[in-house]
Amino acid sequence: MEFIYLDHAATTPIHPKVSKVYKDVMDTVFGNPSSIHSFGRTSRKLIDDARKTIAAAINADPTEIIFTSGGTEADNIAVFGTASNMKEKGNHIITTTIEHHAVLHACKELEKNGFQVTYLPVDENGRITARQVAEALTEKTILVTIMYGNNEVGTVQPIKEIGELLIGHQAVFHSDAVQAFGIVDLDVNELQVDLLSTSAHKLNGPKGVGFLYQRKGVQTTPLSYGGEQERKRRAGTENVPAIASFAEAVTIAKAEMVGNGEKYVRFRQILRSVFDAQNISYEVNANDADTLPHVVNISFPGTDIESLLVNMDMAGIAVSSGSACTAGSLEPSHVLSAMYGKDSTKLRNSVRFSFGLGLEEDNVKQAALTTAEIIDRLVK
């Protein structure tokens, strides 16, 4: 049986070139980057070079990159770190109802400590508008945190418009770009963001490493205390092999971005053409929105997500019903709930297909045919 992986939004296979860098560094470089002897300096140079490579990828300065353990920590530093640093200037935060739980749960925790959070509702395409942000802004707003592209349905938010709107306001602007980084081109100056979160394992890099872009002049209170690593912004000895291989993953992603984007669009078209040819009833969620090219969320009326996913897995097709961080939960997708309402049948029959390294058109066509056969069997 051929196994076909269509869950790249959850995590991606590590690229062979990235894996080689990781192993080479792990085998040959062990010095503590904070040590002043030659072993430490060798490690420090790898980190410095990686910081330059990654900064250039988003048009940032190397000093604006904070290496973290991944997207969740980067989001937490952005939310908690900003709230703590800005608490004397206000207690109001603006976000959306479809953020990743690394942001939503952080905001819920801040509400327990006296902060007020406005959760902007989204339309049926999972989108908000800059006007909604403008109407929610107050003189006490200290943080606006809105994801670039949604991890479940792929909807891209008007980040640039919101960034321009916030010019001159005290609020710090953060965007969770974990799902978008490496897939689409991001320029932090064009977007006018102050903070931006990413994670390496979403772009064929290793798990356990990410970064937070922090614009010069923007301050965040550290969440951990210890050494003075990352310019005193994030204590802890750096993961040198992971950081070096993260830079390699970024280099590859930038070089292949345009071609990959075009390929993922073709994959989406293949899915739909096969479903059409097989007379499968389906509806693409967020179909009228600008979406990330590698994520497509599809509703199959008359099916139940649990039996559908089990049958697809048994047939060798790996897909998801939503965020990997909540895959073990029986709760319906908070993203689809926000888009369609808690009573919508789409909450129980929607599948996320996501594309990436190793997939070819034949794989996608076979996966679509197998999916169509399963759905046809389940709805009869």
TrEMBL record:
Keyword annotations: Iron, Iron-sulfur, Metal-binding, Pyridoxal phosphate, Transferase
Annotated Aminotransferase class V domain residues: 4-365
First-level EC class: transferase
InterPro entries: Aminotrans_V_dom, Aminotrans_V_PyrdxlP_BS, Cysteine_dSase, PyrdxlP-dep_Trfase, PyrdxlP-dep_Trfase_major, PyrdxlP-dep_Trfase_small
Catalytic activity: (sulfur carrier)-H + L-cysteine = (sulfur carrier)-SH + L-alanine
Pfam families on file: Aminotran_5 (PF00266)
EC number annotated for this UniProt entry: 2.8.1.7
Cofactors named for this entry: pyridoxal 5'-phosphate
Record PANTHER family: CYSTEINE DESULFURASE, CYSTEINE DESULFURYLASE FAMILY MEMBER
Family (UniProt): Belongs to the class-V pyridoxal-phosphate-dependent aminotransferase family. NifS/IscS subfamily.
Protein name, entry field: cysteine desulfurase
Origin species: Sporosarcina oncorhynchi
